[in-house]
Amino acid sequence: MAIFSSGKYSTLSTGRRNKMVIPDGTWIKCKKCAQTLYINRLEDNLQVCWCCGCHLPMSPAARINMLTDAGSFVEEDTELRSVDKLEFFDSKSYADRLKENIGKTGDNEAVRCGTATLNGIPFSLGVMNFSFMGASMGSVVGERITRMIERATAARRSVVLVTASGGARMQEGILSLMQMAKTSGALARHREAKLGYIVIMTNPTYGGVSASFATLGDIILAEPGAMIGFAGPRVVSETTKSTLPEGFQTAEFLSERGLIDRVVERKNLRKELQFLLEIFHKTV
Predict the structure, then answer these.
(1) 3-state SS of the chain?
(2) Is it the case that residue 21 has pLDDT exceeding 60?
(3) Residues 58-105: pLDDT tens digits?
């Protein structure tokens, strides 16, 4: 057996036939249609499958680049870090889980918050990261979002929040649930100042996040196929002992029933956000 290298790929020779060895991280499978997708092309297509249109997960950095003027995003409150006040332990300690997720994602929390501009219009932006503990809402997530909203209120800026979450962070118990009231209170004061708040829901947005700041937007947008709700369809079906309608909890289902204002494809989000920010900016 011998391995021959030719440029980017290697060929494995077994004596009977040659087999192409594809480097790790070159291809992934679409979770909806199972089509094999070339990662570089997928990045150019904003992480949207060109075969079925499935909107695959997108990193916070990529979302920020997509929704802001180049180099305009200034992140805030990066010094705020979660701590294991309850000394929570399930299969491993909460402290170990935090270290593991920081190493895996390169972020130190499940949300990035800061200021930016889009077409020169200043606004505050928060982007949740589902890869960090399922973007669960812990004390630091709530505090970062609250501080962002309060600064936006003082500076008379609109707020844009890209949501994704599995719900409250169980490792922080009641401290996590308190963030629902805290963020909602900050948004109430923002609204009293007659300032705009735009939510962009991505897949999935569940639990305490959907029950608080994710559904309080003046305008609520969602990506196609995003799953949105408090509890998942299986839990709802088993609890109510009923058969759920087709498409239950999808963005399209909720748009038809008035919870979502508009379902917007990712390629159109920047233009849509710019349009909305211009409207809110004129009213300041």
Answers:
(1) CEEEEECCEEEEECCCCEEEECCCCCEEECCCCCCEEEHHHHHHCCCECCCCCCECCCCHHHHHHHHCCCCCCEEECCCCCCCCCCCCECCCEHHHHHHHHHHHHCCCCCEEEEEEEECCEEEEEEEECCCCHHHCECHHHHHHHHHHHHHHHHHCCEEEEEEEECCECHHHCHHHHHHHHHHHHHHHHHHHCCCCEEEEEEEEECHHHHCCHHHCCCEEEECCCCEECCCCHHHHHHHHCCCCCCCCCEHHHHHHCCCCCEECCHHHHHHHHHHHHHHHHHHC
(2) no
(3) 999 999 999 999 999 999 999 999 999 999 999 999 999 999 999 999
